Amino acid sequence: MSKRKNQVKYVLAAYEESFAIEKKNSSEAHIESLRSDSLAGYRVKTIKSGPILEVEAYPFWKIPQSRKKRSEESSQAQKNLNDKNTKKHVTRLINANFRSFVDLWLTYTYPPGKMPADFEQAKKDMTNLIRRMKNWLKKREQYKGFELKYIYVTEHTRDGNKVRAHHHMVTNFPDRDIAEELWNCGGRTQSRRLQGDDFGFEGMARYITKEKGNKTMKRYTPSRNLKQPTVTVADTKLTRRRAEKIAKEEISAQETFESWHKGYQFKDMQVQFSDFVSGAYLYVRMKRIDSPIKQKGDRMNENNQHYKSKGRSG
């Protein structure tokens, strides 16, 4: 075995938190750290979620690295990181399991005076809705074997005597009208077909998971049958020298990553540095290349063949 393969690799567990300084705010010292003798290489993590591919490249070192602990900012920093990771996880689950022009995004609300008393009651209302959806599917021969998938977010706010609550749901339920009618808690129901952009359904996922303040309880609930993103890790794909050139824009990041991932188009990249450790964190987003017309046509045909119903098609 080569000396490189026998090396112990020291990697920070919280690498995203450590590399928090955007390139536009970087200093000469950050740029110089790209050539630090302590750097041993870069670990490349690839995450595939449906048509979206993400690449995270971050350093490993020859010797252990320690990150200075923050004082009063530490709890808020951890909360911010947790919120960021939640948004990423929900985005990836939606991208991996749901389809543009076919699946649904629904919002369920309550009428004044009929708000759920607490978060637990609001969650129970959604549990009951899902049970009714499953019962409706079981009673129809054309949906025999249909596997209902969903992610919903419940939001409940109590400010004194004032209570507000609503739910957002992403689902593959096949009938849009029935998905609205099965909500029996009053209020308004809004629905639309999912439609992604260059980053899949990230915008929608960020919207439904956005934090609302300390008087609001908010939590997402996925069905157990969702596919998880595909994650691969490699420690020999990106050399120190190439990472340095990409971070300094001496070579094209688009050309590099598109050559690694055939059939995907480069969309954007973030470069971030740390005040505590050397190197850089690279975060790249790409999208699978499909013909939009063919993609929409194929999905609508699949929907018509598999999800025959009397509901509206738009």
Tell me what the structure shows.
The structure is a single chain. The protein is α+β, with helices and mostly antiparallel strands and 314 residues long. The protein is 32% helix and 28% strand. It has helices spanning 3-6, 15-18, 28-32, 74-97, 119-138, 176-181, 202-209, 240-247, 253-260, 292-306, and strands at residues 21-22, 39-49, 52-61, 104-109, 150-159, 162-171, 189-193, 216-222, 230-238, 264-273, 281-288. The chain has a six-stranded antiparallel β-sheet with strand order 1-10-11-3-2-9. The chain is elongated, with a radius of gyration of 23 Å. It starts with a helix and ends in an 8-residue tail after the last helix.
Topology:
Layout lengths: L2 H4 L8 H4 L2 E2 L5 H5 L6 E11 L2 E10 L12 H24 L6 E6 L9 H20 L11 E10 L2 E10 L4 H6 L7 E5 L8 H8 L6 E7 L7 E9 L1 H8 L5 H8 L3 E10 L7 E8 L3 H15 L8
Antiparallel strand pairs: 1-10, 2-3, 2-9, 3-11, 4-6, 4-7, 5-6, 5-8, 10-11
CATH architecture classification of the domain at 95-227: 2-Layer Sandwich
* N- and C-termini, Cα separation: 60 Å
Structural class: alpha+beta
Q: How do the helices and strands follow one another from N- to C-terminus?
A: HHEHEEHEHEEHEHEEHHEEH
Strand order of the largest sheet: 1-10-11-3-2-9
Q: Which percent range fits the helix content?
A: 25-40%
Average of per-residue pLDDT values: 87
- Rg over CA atoms: 23 Å
Report the sheet with the most strands, covering strand number, pairing sense and barrel closure: 6 strands, antiparallel
